[in-house]
Amino acid sequence: TNRTFTMIKPDAVEKGHIGGILSMITEAGFRIVALKLTQLTVADAKEFYAVHSERPFYDELVTFMSRGAIVAAILEKDNAVEDFRTLIGATNPADAAEGTIRKKYATSMGENAVHGSDSDENAAIESAFHFAGREQF
Ligand code: ATP
């Protein structure tokens, strides 16, 4: 499909980077089709990241992702999932390319400013987790 799902994570919201990150997203040609400021409960974060439940960083990830407000959004563009992964950059900001969102705003492997879906299937699942149909434009 031509849609992907993103979150601006608590670290970036805390530091006041919502506007800067949304600007990078729209300047890269993505159209915002759904958008909200919200917060994940611990249970939400556990469910959202269930695929990582056996990883050593799971508890840290759940605590981090539920500690404050996030921005959830659905984005539309040709080749959205792959192009958005390119725009956000590598998971570890030390490896993130120049011009990427994580290069500019991430501080560590865990606190890396943004999420981007890794497949069309997960983009649909993650979008439905956060947004009702009538909230998607
Ligand atoms: P995301 O799924 O958030 O877009 P990603 O696909 O780049 O990130 P994953 O490997 O799926 O990275 O890991 C999911 C998230 O878990 C990372 O974005 C990061 O916040 C956290 N994470 C990953 N590896 C570590 C680690 N070694 N230590 C702490 N947190 C980590």
UniProtKB/TrEMBL annotation:
The UniProt entry, under InterPro entries, shows: NDK-like_dom (IPR034907), NDK-like_dom_sf (IPR036850), Nucleoside_diP_kinase (IPR001564)
UniProt-annotated location(s): Cytoplasm
- The record's EC number reads 2.7.4.6
**CDD domains for this protein:** NDPk_I
Instruction: Tell me where on the tree of life, at the top rank, the source sits.
Output: Bacteria
Chain residues that bind ATP? 9, 57, 85, 91, 102, 112
> Where is the secretion signal located?
none
Which keywords are on file for this protein? ATP-binding, Cytoplasm, Kinase, Magnesium, Metal-binding, Nucleotide metabolism, Nucleotide-binding, Phosphoprotein, Transferase
**Segments forming domain Nucleoside diphosphate kinase-like:** 1-135
Catalyses which reaction(s): a ribonucleoside 5'-diphosphate + ATP = a ribonucleoside 5'-triphosphate + ADP; a 2'-deoxyribonucleoside 5'-diphosphate + ATP = a 2'-deoxyribonucleoside 5'-triphosphate + ADP
Which EC class does it fall in? transferase
Q: Which GO terms describe its molecular function?
A: nucleoside diphosphate kinase activity
Family designation? Belongs to the NDK family.
Q: Partners and quaternary state?
A: Homotetramer.
Q: What does this protein do?
A: Major role in the synthesis of nucleoside triphosphates other than ATP. The ATP gamma phosphate is transferred to the NDP beta phosphate via a ping-pong mechanism, using a phosphorylated active-site intermediate.
- Protein's UniProt name: Nucleoside diphosphate kinase
UniProt source species: Flavobacterium litorale
Q: What is the lineage of its organism?
A: Bacteria, Pseudomonadati, Bacteroidota, Flavobacteriia, Flavobacteriales
